[in-house]
Structures are given as C-alpha cells and as structure tokens.
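Late entry, evening session. Most of the bench is empty. Finally got around to the prediction I had been postponing all week. Sequence below, unchanged from the version circulated by S.P.
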Amino acid sequence: MESAYLCSMRAILLLLCSLWILPELTLAKHARITRHYKFNIKMQNVTRLCQTKSIVTVNGQFPGPRIIAREGDRLVIKVTNHVPYNVSIHWHGVRQIRSGWADGPAYITQCPIQTGQSYVYNFTVTGQRGTLWWHAHISWLRATLYGPIVILPKRHVPYPFPQPFKEVPIVFGEWWKADTETLIKQAMQTGLAPNVSDAHTINGLPGPLHKCSVKDTFKLEVKPGKTYLLRLVNAALNDDLFFSIANHTLTVVEADAVYVKHFKTNIALITPGQTTNVLLKTKSKSPNATFVIAARPYATGPAAFDNTTATGLLEYRKSSLSNTKLKNKKLPLFRPLLPKFNDTVFAMNYNKKVRSLANAKFPAKVPKTVQKRFFFTVGLGIRTCPKNQACQGPNNTRVAAAINNVSFVMPNIALLQAHFFNQSKGVYTTDFPANPPFKFNYTGTQPSNIMVTTGTKVVVLPFNTSVELILQDTSIIGAESHPLHLHGFNFFVVGQGNGNFNPKKDPSKFNLIDPAERNTIGVPSGGWVAVRFLADNPGVWFMHCHFEVHTSWGLKMAWIVQDGKLRNQKLPPPPSDLPKC
C-alpha cells in the first residue's frame, strides 16, 4: 500500500517537474539573447589603387565588422564618434518595430552623433532572418562606413534550402581616390554631378584589373562537391551591379532577408541597398582551373558612370599531392559573360523571377484591399540656384531630383522628434502630394518646364492603413532605373512594367498571390513598379532613392505613421541618450 502511494507520489512529482521543465526547454530552444557591439568611428589610413588616404571606419576595419544575430535577438550597439564629421548609422532592412529611434537616418529619426559623442542603438530583430546590412546615413560617409548583418534563423530551425557547407558574405562597394565628403560638397556648390568612382570593390578589394591591385583581390577558396551560401550585399553608392562567377550557376534563395522561390541564374542583378542570398554548388571534382568572380554596373541613366569591373577569384582547394604537381603550372583562367551595361530587358526579366515562397510557414501577407492609393513620379529636374551662389547649370540652375516634383529639403532637427513632441511648426508640412502636380507623358517627350519645387513635406498615415504606391520613372533629363528604399517596412512588389502605368489595364495583372517582398526595389528605367504595404509600424519613415547622388539632389520623402489605439501600437518615448542637434 505504502509503496503504491510512494509510486503515485513520485509519478505526480515527475509530471510536475516535466511541466515545469518543458517551458524552460521551449525557451532554451528559441532563447532570445541580447548581443552587444561597440562601434568606434575612427579615421584609418587605407591604401587602394596605388595611393593611401584617410577614411572613416568602424573600429579601423574596412569594410566594417559583421553583425551576427538570430531572429528574435536584441541588438545593443554603442556608436562612439571619434571623427571630425557628424555620424549616424542605419540598420538597413531591419523593420524597427516600435523602435524608430534606432533607425538611424540623420535628421529623420535622430540628430547625428557629433564628434566626441555616443549613442546606443537598441532594437530587436522581429520576424526576420537572412542578410541585411548597416551603413552610415548622413552625407556620403557610407562610401566606407558599411558592413553586413547576418540574421540566422531561431535555433534548430532549418533553412528552406539545403544546409550550406559554408556561408560567405560578399559586399560590393565603390572606391574613390578623392575624399568623398569634399567631392559631394563641391558638387552641391556647383550644382553639377560629382565625379564617378574610380573602382568597384568586392569586400573592399578592387581586384587585378586595376593598377597596384593584384594583392587587393578577393579570393574564395572552395572544396569540390560542396554547397556555399553567398550573402550578397550591394553597398555601392551609385551603381546597380551585375554579378557572376565564370562557369558556375547560382541559385537565388533569398532577397532582402525574405526567402524566395528558388531559381537558377548565371547572373544576379542587385541594386544599391538590396541583398541577395545565392547557393553556389561547386563542381564534383576539382577542376584544374581558376574562375573569375565579377561585378560590373547596370547603368541606364544619361550621366557618366564608373564602367570598371571588380574581380575576384574562385579557387578550388587542391590536395597536397596535386599541389606539388601543379605548383609551377599556371592554371587556365575562365571569365564570366556579363550583359551589356544597359540591358533593361535582362533587368526586367530577372526582377520578375523574384517571388515569395507564399506557403504556410512563410506566408505572403499581401494587403488584398487598399485604403490609400498614391502615384509618385521619380526622376530628375532642375532648380534655381540659391542666392549668393553661382551654379553651373543652364541659366544659373542646378540639377535636382524629386518625387512628384517635390525636391525634399532636409530639416535642421529630426522629424521624429518634431512629430513625437508635436513641434512640427516650421519643421515640416503634411501636404506631400499624392499625385504629380500635372499629368504628362512621363516616359515620352519631357515637358517644357522641368523646374522642381522644394519643401520638407511628408505623408501622414493612420495606423494600420493599407497602402498601394505606384512609382513611375520619368524621362526628364533622362530615363533611369531608381532603387527606391523604404525604411521601417517591407513592401510587396505586385506589378511592374515598361512605359507609363495604365490605371485601367495594369491593376488587373497585379500578382497578389506570391509577389516579391522587399525593402528596396529598382523602379524600371522608363517604366513603373507597383508596391503595397501595411502601415503597422508607428514612427517617421524615410523613403529615398539609394543612389546617393539622387538622395543628395532631393529624391526623398517621409511617411509619418500615427500611433494605434493599443499600447503595443504606440511608439515609446526616445532614449535618454538620443543625440541633440
């Protein structure tokens, strides 16, 4: 009797223990941790293309350090400014749900970090996994201040593709021999385009096609019969890039930290701001050859561009036996074939292949109904020269860029502070136009008057508004592909096409089943793209062209998303160390 009682008591205790331990195990399986990073912004001498110059870096590294987190982790990144420039850092593509104070664009969500000051960026990576990146978000400092963000899935959660043998970040950039801050300052004074870069880079290295750069070549050493995950980031300032590896096929599995339906390609196309994960399956046997890795511009605009090619090398690891045999033998070198620099057909076809998984595990939550519709023209124009300044454009004008003919003027204090503390007067107005001021043949002959207006105008959206936005390129000065980036949200690319958007015919062809979900999209040169998003993130969110030269000229605007009614739908107050202007 007693032993039966003891047995039953033991069973009850075991059951209680298991019930107590189970949640702990679940928690351990998906444990969210806080990861701390220190970013010391400092000047560093770096030599490229036969000459040394002092550049702005994080911790003296170029490119900057990799940030690694898991989905659900909190990141606490202390940025301390030791350079003579104002600095701010943007965590590109991170949703920043209710953490807009940490988004980073100077004068939009924060005043910049002044010399000798610090700011702690504190945010949680919610519902995202994949490759994103961080970069400076003030003036042209992102020319050297950038690095990858790797967000791994939660523990024990597999990728929806074969587990790679190794993961390799490949970050593209641009290098100028001149000082980029001096360059853009002079361009803004003259009203003309700044000089183009002197080289493109792969992980900061231009490769052997450039002078003094054989030693500055990215090399990817691989084993035969293995799968590698290449995490591609385009951190270039002003160039879309084609990417290819000679005699190897790439499988695209993710874009902008969203898994996509797999598709094979020899060439990837990636705009500034975009990220793409590709699988590279190496050959089953080690070939006695070396393969060129190449990145070269896709350029459609009227202006000059840097037409150089960044190259690296894919090398197969040799066994020690074959190593001795091949030591003195020069291996054949295979080069990839890249499209023509202005191949708009390839670009359109490639972008249409990017589609969401749209399955039970990774649904595509496309807004099916639309509450607010906007039609934005994006392109170039001219504006009058400021008083007491001589501009070198026709009749003392300067080149400008605009959305709906409004060239955005940066405020002197951060928009988010002005919004949060109800101090918008004299900072911004809420009359950003939902449509262009007048209709014209957007991609045809340009209108006689191409002057733009200026202002610090925003769109205000009530919380949870479903938005449809048509982005229409114009041929003013010249048609061009514009990579548009939206902060604080992913959007669904429901349609795209050439020429002028037709509101009667085109919506019927929209893809509302499995459209690409992105944070940056190339508006086709001489064409349009339609996106939808749900304004479920309170705060002030920047939207701009990711060509830095166009952003400098005013191709930017901001959305204010109001608080919702519930506590978890409101933006919390700013942190105590938020920088002051």
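Two things to note before I forget:
The first helix runs from residue 2 to 29.
The radius of gyration is 25 Å.
Will write this up properly tomorrow.
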